[in-house]
Structures are given as structure tokens and as C-alpha cells.
């Protein structure tokens, strides 16, 4: 894995996070983590959370995206985006470290 660059968050993802925070009345951060499991070996865990001491914090206009230290090597050089399609809307990860992924896009292998 190439660890030269941290993940990047698109303006669209930050905008959607701002909409979610406004709708829920909570000013939470978006946590993007990698866990063991899924059909390809690893899976993404994307949820609202509070920052922890060892998190990488990516911030724009007061909105924060968090990546924990364990997940960071798996997400190096990745792009965190938000996608709206006919089949649904969701946060998506474009991960150059993934050598294979499942059809739903939440599970991958390295």
C-alpha cells in the first residue's frame, strides 16, 4: 500500500454531511473506518461519531471527516465521496488500495 497521501474528501461529501447535521440537529463528524469482514475480507464502516484522540481529522467549513489510525493505511490516497443514483444515495470510497471489491461497494480486499 502506498501511504504517501491521506484520504481526500470531496466537496459533495462535505455538503451532504452538513445537510445530515442540519436535519438531525447534531453536529457530529463522519467516521470512515475499515473493519475485518464482508465478502471480500474488509468492509467500510461509515457512521456519525465524535472525534477520538488518534483520529486523522479532515475538515471543511466546520464539518469533519474522521479516520482512525488503524484504518488510515487502508484508506491512503482514497477519495471519500457522496453519490446519488437511481438505485440510492450513499457515501462511497474510491480506494486505490483495493485489489478487489464486491458488487455493493462496501467490501474489499487488499
Automatic annotation (TrEMBL):
Pfam families with a match to the protein in the record: Fe-S_biosyn (PF01521)
Any single biological process term in GO: iron-sulfur cluster assembly
Top-level lineage group: Bacteria
Domain Core: from-to ranges: 9-105
Alphabetized Gene3D superfamilies for the sequence: HesB-like domain (2.60.300.12)
InterPro entries cross-referenced by the UniProt entry: ATAP, ATAP_core_dom, FeS_cluster_insertion_CS, HesB-like_dom_sf
GO molecular function annotation: 2 iron, 2 sulfur cluster binding; 4 iron, 4 sulfur cluster binding; iron ion binding
PANTHER family: IRON-SULFUR CLUSTER ASSEMBLY 2 HOMOLOG, MITOCHONDRIAL
Stated name of the protein: Iron-sulfur cluster insertion protein ErpA
Designated gene of the protein: erpA
Amino acid at each position: 500500500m502506498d501511504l504517501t497521501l491521506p484520504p481526500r474528501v470531496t466537496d459533495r461529501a462535505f455538503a451532504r454531511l452538513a445537510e445530515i447535521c442540519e436535519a438531525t440537529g447534531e453536529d457530529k463528524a463522519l467516521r470512515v473506518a475499515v473493519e475485518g469482514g464482508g465478502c471480500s475480507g474488509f468492509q467500510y464502516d461509515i457512521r456519525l461519531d465524535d472525534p477520538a484522540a488518534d483520529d486523522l481529522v479532515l475538515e471543511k467549513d466546520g464539518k469533519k471527516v474522521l479516520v482512525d489510525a488503524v484504518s488510515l493505511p487502508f484508506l491512503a490516497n482514497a477519495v471519500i465521496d457522496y453519490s446519488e443514483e437511481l438505485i440510492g444515495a450513499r457515501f462511497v470510497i474510491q480506494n486505490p488500495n483495493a485489489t478487489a471489491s464486491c458488487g455493493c461497494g462496501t467490501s474489499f480486499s487488499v
